[in-house]
Please model this.
Amino acid sequence: MLMPEIECVSQRPISRWRDGSFSQQQDNLAVEVPIALEFNGISHAVMLATPCDLESFALGFALSEGIVAQRGEFRGAEIEESASGLTVHCDISSRAFMNLKQKRRNMTGRTGCGLCGVESLDQVLRILPEVPAGRTVPLPAIRTALSSLSTLQPLCNLTGGMHAAAFSNPDGAILLACEDVGRHNALDKLIGRMAERDLNFQEGFLLITSRASVEMVQKAATMGIGCLIAISAPTTLSVEMAQATGMTLIAFARGNEFVAYTHANRIDLR
Model:
């Protein structure tokens, strides 16, 4: 099944008030549609997302949420369009599907909001292994990556309404960047595209244009990413999770300034 031709940016007529008068113009808006993720025929989650890079999105979601343990367990995806939105039909291995069914037996009312459907507080925060120690992150590399990030956000530059997630090599050269109206979706798309290209999640660092919520830290830690850099603020849970997993968490990274909340010893200030 071919990917339906669905735009990710749409123009709408607007009336703009400026300098004391209205003008009739066209404005670019980020497209947001319901996207259902199905695994071996069973609906698992419905997300509101931008309808681009959907196979990468599904793969990244499956990896970052622990539905599949490795790229090879995700065997492909087909996209179906309906009047209500899009459905991504994912084919995963029998082992991964058995594990998913077992998880679902312990959940009720699963939705795409991330925490809906869990039955106890113990299910909110996943137990994650420590991330590999990896290399230190040079300060010049952080500056270089941050300075080039905006040039790799064409959809945000058009609409002003997109988040981005990007992965940089240790020298500060951004290897991949993905955009979506949802910060989690942008990260899942990035994870999926990196897995498709067999890129090493330990050889570099992650940048996000949003706040560093605990879900973002969990997804990054699941993939073994040792350093997460956010443009906006962290939360208490994200700091605690980053500390526990050995991840360097940097936030408020803007221009030549940032705040390191955990494991600052892994930043090379020379």
